[in-house]
Structure formats: C-alpha cells, structure tokens
Amino acid sequence: MAKVIAITNQKGGVGKTTTAINLGASLAANDLRVLLVDFDPQGNSTSGLGIDKNPQNPTIYHALLDGLPMERVLIITECEGFQIAPADKNLVGANLDLVDVPDREYRLKLALGPVLDQFDYVLIDCPPALDLLTLNALVAADSVLIPIQCEFFALEGISQLIDTIDKVRESFGHPLKIEGILLTMYDDRTNLTRQVADDLKDFFPDEVLSTVIPRTIRLAEAPSYGKPILMYDPRSRGAESYIKLAKEILANEQRQRQNAQSAR
Ligand code: ATP
Ligand code: MG
User: Which residue's alpha carbon is nearest to atom 19 within ligand 1?
Assistant: First the structure.
C-alpha cells in the first residue's frame, strides 16, 4: 500500500515541482514504484517529465470529476518504476466544478484508492494556493512535505499552511503528518540564507530535514529537457541532494515503523 505525500506550499516558485520530479525519480532509483500526481493546472510536472500535453489525453481532471478510472490516466515515464498522472490547464476549472460535487474534498482520495497497491510512494505536486485542489491533496495524503526557499518572507505563510493542516486533522478526523520542511535553493554563501535557515530550525526543530537542496543551474535546466536531474546530470550536486533526500525520507519511515512496532 503506497504512502501518499503531498508536496505543498501556497507560496509560488519555492521548488514544489522540482522536488516532486526529482524526489520521485530518486525513490524510483531505489527500486520503489512511484506515482507522481500532477495536481497543478500549470502542469509543470507533466512537461518537466517530457510528457506531451495533448488535449486528447486523459488527465487527473477526468479521474477527479468524470469518474475515469485512475489506471486510464497514468503514463509511464522514461525512468523505470516512475509513472505520472498528468495535468493540463483544464484542471483550473476543477476548483469551481468540485464545489457542487458530493464528497468534494475526498475526490482525489477516492480516485487514488484503486491504484494505491500498485505503488510504494505517491507524490502529489500541489498548486501554489490553499484551494479546493490542495484540500483534496491534503485529505488524500498521509503526510506533507513543505519545500521552503530561504528568503526573507519564507516564514510568512507557513503558519497559515500549518493552520490548514490542523484544520484538516480536526475537520476530517485525518491524522495528517508532517513529513518535513525542506530547504530549497539553498545558497550558504549568503548571510540571508543562513539566517532564514537558522530561524526555521528554531521554529520547527523537529520538522526541518537535514538534507538541503542547493541552488544550482543544472536543476533549473533539467525540466526543459523533460528529464529528472538523475537522468540529465546524475553526478551533479543537485542529483546528489535529491538522492540524499530520498534516503532521509526512507530512513525516517523505517524509524517510525520500528517505533510503532516496539510500542506494541
Ligand atoms: P509553482 O508554485 O509555480 O508551482 P514551484 O513551487 O513548483 O512553483 P519550481 O517550479 O519547482 O517551484 O521552481 C521554481 C523555479 O525555480 C523553476 O524555474 C525551477 O527550475 C527553479 N528551481 C527550483 N529549484 C531550484 C534549485 N535548487 N536551484 C536552481 N533553480 C531551482
Ligand atoms: Mg509547481
């Protein structure tokens, strides 16, 4: 049964999609079966993995609103074990179209249900908004991974995101966990980056992951070739950092499992 991780931050351009693509590819490189759900109408995960946005092709929108079985939406990527449920700009209508639908916050969870045992990990690339799409992602997820760019306003908005996570826990009786806070586009030559990172660690000592993603041009270039960094430049610092992130997330999960077992 897959573990579902929503990659979310309502702030735009913080590295959600870059993390979704490259964490996904790194988990798949560990012989895990991974599904990336592109849940952003911008469809950046879809194009970043080299998938054509042909209007004829079924997308996550059809699974969400037309009852199309999820299996019909999935596309195999160039990386072994890594599949994607693509999105295109039509998904922008979902926020309105969902309003009158029964179980509107549960549509993604319901759509994913039948394919969960085909994967070890499902990653959801969320849009930069706390909208009905993101709510669907949070309800469908076991945990949230929050990429944060180390810049002056980084902390603003995080409390709003944490409030939303708390609300999902309360209103939906859903034990949503925080997978971690991931520092992205990290440049330790600047005082500001170091200072913001220190502040985040003070505020969230248990949540900030020890892996940080450096700012590198190779990570920014890879999507224009339709490839994860592991295929575009496997020896780069960017590739190394995402491999390290996958290992950290796998190790955390193993530790949680052991703790749960010893508590029994
Ligand atoms: P949106 O909120 O619009 O969906 P996002 O949070 O998904 O944005 P990305 O698309 O992953 O953010 O990244 C924003 C931009 O920064 C992109 O052009 C991406 O290539 C670039 N970028 C992301 N991570 C890095 C990095 N570590 N080093 C350099 N550039 C990066
Ligand atoms: Mg994105």
Answer: 220
Ligand 1 pocket, residue 93 CB under 6 Å: no
What is the 255 CA–ligand 2 centroid distance (Å)?
Answer: 30
Question: pLDDT by residue (tens digit) across 102-118?
Answer: 999 999 999 999 999 99
Nearest to 213 by CA among 189, 191, 235, 244: 244
Could you give the maximum distance between any two Cα atoms of the chain, in Å? Answer: 51
Instruction: Evaluate whether 136 touches 108 at the Cβ level (below 8 Å).
Output: yes
Q: Give the position, in ligand 1's atom list, of the atom nearest the Cα of 216.
A: 28
**What is the amino acid identity at position 54?**
N
* Nearest-angstrom CA–CA distance, 233 and 26: 13
Instruction: Look up the pTM and report it.
Output: 0.97
Q: Is the CB of 17 under 6 A from ligand 1?
A: yes
- Sheet with 143-149, side-by-side order of all strands: 75-76, 82-85, 34-38, 121-125, 3-7, 143-149, 177-186, 208-214
> What is the rounded average pLDDT of the residues 66-77?
97
Put residue 226 in one of left, alpha, beta given phi > 0 → left and psi -120 to 50 → alpha: left
> Nearest Cα to 122, choosing from 51, 62, 33?
33
pLDDT band at 122 (very low <50, low <70, confident <90, very high): very high
**What is the arithmetic mean of pLDDT over 210-233?**
97
